[in-house]
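ENTRY TYPE: paired fold submission
RECORD: A
CONTENT: sequence, then C-alpha cells
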Amino acid sequence: MTSPEGPELERVRNWSAGLGAALGTVAGEVGDLGRRIAAGWPDHHGREWSERLLTLRTGLERAGDAAARLAQAADRGVDGPVGPATGPRLGGTAARRAADERGVRIPRLDDPEDG
C-alpha cells in the first residue's frame, strides 16, 4: 500500500464498507429474531436464547463498527494500526530505540516531569 489512491486501498475500502453493511444487516436480523423468540417463548429457555442472541448481535455490531473504521482508515490512507495503540512500544528491526528512557522508572511525589 503505497498511495492512498492505489487499487489496494480501494479494494480494502470497498470490502470493509461492504462487510460493515452486511454485518449491520445481520445484526439487525439477529436482534429481530431474539425479540420474536422472547415474545413467543416466554419461559426461562426463551429468555436464555434471547440473551444468547443479544450477545451475538452485540458482537456483530462491534465487528461491523471495526470494519467501518478500517474503511475510514483506508480513506485516509493509513498504513499503521487502526485505533488506539495499546501495550508496550517495541523496537523494530531498524536497530532504533523505541524510547529514549532506559530501565525501570519509579514514580516519585516530587517528579519534575509530572509538571
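RECORD: B
CONTENT: sequence, then C-alpha cells
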Amino acid sequence: MSSWRLRVPAIVIVLALAGAGFALFGSSTEIHRSEMSKLVVHTSGLAGVPHKPYLDKPQSFTSVPAKILAQAAASDPSHTGVYTVGWKNPASSENVGLLIELLPTASAAQSARSELQKEYATKKSYQAAGLTLVGSFSVPKVPGAFAREFTTTATSTNSSPTTVETVLFQVRRVAVSVMVQSVKSAGLRQGASRLASSELQLLQRAEPHFAMTTSVHRALTALWYGLGALGVSLAIIFGPTVLLELQLSRERRAERAVRREQRHVSARGGKVLKRKSVPAWQTSRSAPRRYEQWFRSRH
C-alpha cells in the first residue's frame, strides 16, 4: 500500500509534465492577418462610388511609415497588422480609402494615431503631399476625431483640383484613417463622417474579442508525448514489481547453485573416502588362518 502511495503522485507528475511539454513544444501559432477584414466595413455608403471595393486586403508594415508600428511588428507580430479597403470610380476621380492599424495595446494605438495625425496637422508634411489646408470640421458621432479638409492642386491642364476629407480616430487597439477624395466637394464631409461612424460602430462590437492567431497542434508530436507518458507511467506501476521479481529470481538461482555445489562436494568427498578405506581382505577374520595354512603347506 505504501508503494502505491508513492506511485500515484509520480504518475500524476509525469502526466502533468507531458501535458506542459506538449503545450510548449507540441503546438505552434499561425497568424492570419486576413482576419482583420472583420474589423473594417466593406461598403463606403457614398453615392457614385462602386459598392464593391477594388482593394480589400492586409498591407505590409512598410506601407505605413510609422515608427511605433515597426516596433510593434518586431516585438509582437501576432497582435499587429495593417489593413486597407479602397473604393474608386474611374469615371469620376472619386476615391475612398479606409486604413486601420492594429496594435498590441491601446497606448500603442494612441501613438500610431498621433503619428498619423501629425502627417495632416504639420504644414510641412501635408504640403509635401501636395495638399492645401482648407479647415477642420467636427464629426459628432465619432468622439475625439481629428477631421480636416484639404484641396489638391491640378497637376496638368486636363486635371481638376480635388477636395480631400480626412478623419482620424482610435478605438482601443485600433487606429483608423478615413479619406474621401473627389472633384465635387458637396456632401464629402457628410460622406466621410458617415463612413467614420460606421467603422466606429463596427470596431466597438468586433475589436474586444478579436484575434487573428490560431494554435496548430502537431499530431505526431502529440503521439510521441502520449507514448512517452504511457511508457513512464507503466514503468512506475510495474517497475518495482519487475525489479523485485528479478531480484528474487537471482536469489533463487544463487541458492540452487549453492545446493548443487554442496551436492557436488559431498559426492566427491564420498568417493575419496571410498578410495582411502582399508581393503576387505585386510580386515577379514579368515585372512590369518589362510596365511597360516599356506605357510604350513610350504614348509
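NOTES ON RECORD B: The chain has a mean pLDDT of 81. The chain has two domains: 27-216, 237-293.
STATUS: closed
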